[in-house]
Amino acid sequence: MAATPSPSDAPISGRHRIAVVGGGSAGISVAARLRRAGVTDITLIEPSDTHWYQPLWTLVGGGQAPLGTTRRPEASVIPDGVRWIRRRALAVDPEARTVALSGGAELSYEYLIMAPGIQLDWNGVPGLAEAVGHDRVSSNYAPEYAPRTWELIKQMRSGTAVFTHPASPLKCGGAPQKIAYLAADYWRKQKVLDRIRVILVIPDPALFKVPGWSQVLEKVADRYGIEVRLRSEMTAVDGDSREVTITDHANGTKETIGYDLLHAVPPQSAPDWVKASPLADPASAQGFVAADKHTLRHPSYGHVFALGDVANLPTSKTGAAVRKQAPVVAANLLDVMNGRSPSRSYDGYTSCPLVTARDRMLLAEFDYDLNPTPSFPLISPFKERRAMWAFKRYGLPPVYWHGMLTGRL
Ligand code: FAD
Q1: From residue 367, how far is each of 133, 322, 370 by CA, in Å?
Q2: Distance from C-alpha of 53 to C-alpha of 172, rounded to nearest angstrom
Q3: Which of 42, 138, 281, 290 registers the highest number of CB atoms within 10 A of its CB?
Q4: Ligand 1 centre and the CA of 118: distance in Å?
């Protein structure tokens, strides 16, 4: 399937057989799978002209990859034959089977795939929205700030560096701590680490959900002398005075710490218009879309499927999870379109490439039951490896652009 640009001015009128909301990792992967299966009537709703490969943003912030390699024109990743409507979805009415679009139009559909990703709630922590991008505050979670993380790391020779992780569900649960390890390893190599106090703030009772990897990460944090604050969360930032407030939920205390570098990861939720829609799962405090955890079909609206960061699934939100979800959604949607029950089942597979040094990585892969599901079963997944770091830096991007987004892998 050649990646020739699709027209971005496709007509909105008429009834669209399949509408896909969001042309990120999930929307493009599933559209490509459906095209390969011979489906002809697919409409993509995506406002952005840029497609991002976000997993490399950690290495952008760590000074190990240029931002430009993480971006491609959206038109170049849209599968041939998919209509592109370059507008933002503003609301969905699954009873009427319509999506309200920016610019005032309404699109009518038969089947809907929800893949608009996650929302970064910069206003969720007082002071954060004002401070990020200034005041020595950065974040790998947005492309406009990730290169700045590296600038701050490079400049730092002494002082206090704070790395935070929100208490909400987030995309790539490992990313908030990976950048702490990349920074600490850089400072160690520069022989300044003993002059820098590194604080890692984690809301959970352990560094990682799966005990085997958590134990390895404890040793990694120890190796760099990182002060780990578990069951804790950033609750305020004062950019002017360069102070961050950390609340310890275990004992209910608050501490205000002066910082010289703050890597902040904002709280995250479903996009506001999704939260307000009938598709939101009442069980999700962040308004993520309800989906059966195996079939990925909406429990109340059988013509709707959800995948990627927007879906309320009890697994970590990653691109690797999307890679396993896309074929399940494509196959199950085809089943439903043909009057059958969904036949494919997603097991919760997700993967977190835990970069632990500037040349080493742990590949944590697991399912809904937190059982390790290694892609390389002959080697221990609990050992930091150089080959894994090289795989993330040089192997996975082509797998993404040429395999996953084209529906081949
Ligand atoms: P996205 O890829 O974010 O795409 C959402 C799309 O929806 C976007 O194109 C957006 O423009 C569009 N959209 C938004 N609003 C609307 C609207 N109203 N209407 C229409 N379209 C809309 N994953 C890994 O597997 N490994 C990693 O190492 C890894 N590291 C990461 C590091 C960082 C710093 C970050 C930020 C993420 C990382 N991830 C990693 C996570 C991974 O990038 C996401 O899980 C993945 O991109 C989810 O795909 P998605 O399609 O659901 O969302």
Answers
A1: 36, 13, 5
A2: 13
A3: 138
A4: 7
Handedness of CA 390, 392, 398, 402 (dihedral sign): positive
Joined together, the tokens standing for residue 162 give 């704070």
**254-268 pLDDT tens trace:** 999 999 999 999 999
Instruction: Output the pLDDT for position 13.
Output: 87
pLDDT above 70: percentage of residues in the chain: 98
pLDDT score at 5: 40
How far is Cα 282 from Cα 363, in angstroms, rounded to an integer?
33
Does residue 395 belong to any structural domain of this protein? no
Task: State which residues form the domain around 45.
Answer: 7-118+270-346
Count structural domains, the chain.
2
Same domain, 33 and 71: yes
CA atoms in the 13 A half-sphere facing the CB of 99: 33
Is 409 inside a domain boundary? no
Q: Considering the candidates 172, 244, 388, 396, report the single residue annotated as catalytic.
A: 172
Distance in angstroms (rounded) separating the CA atoms of residues 91 and 314? 25
pTM of the full predicted structure? Answer: 0.97
The first and second tokens of residue 384, run together, are 């930091």
* 175-189 and 146-155 helices, crossing angle to 10°: 30
Q: Which residues line ligand 1 (CB under 6 A)?
A: 21-27, 45-48, 54-55, 57-58, 88-89, 115-117, 140-141, 171-172, 175, 271, 308-310, 317-320, 322, 353
State CA 241 to chain mean position distance: 31
Residue 116 CA: nearest ligand 1 atom is: 7
Under 8 Å between Cβ of 86 and 138: no
C-alpha torsion sign, points 51, 53, 58, 61: negative
- pLDDT tens, position by position, 80-108: 999 999 999 999 999 999 999 999 999 99
Q: Is residue 2 part of a domain?
A: no
pLDDT digits (tens, 9 = 90+) for 63-84: 999 999 999 999 999 999 999 9
- Per the CB < 8 A criterion, the answer to whether 322 and 118 are in contact is no
**Per-chain mean pLDDT for the chain:** 96
Is there a single domain that holds both residue 25 and residue 126?
A: no
Among the candidates 234, 268, 302, a domain finishes at 268
Q: Determine how β-strand 71-73 pairs with β-strand 50-52.
A: antiparallel
Question: Nearest Cα to 372, choosing from 210, 215, 219?
Answer: 210
Residues 292, 250 share a domain: no
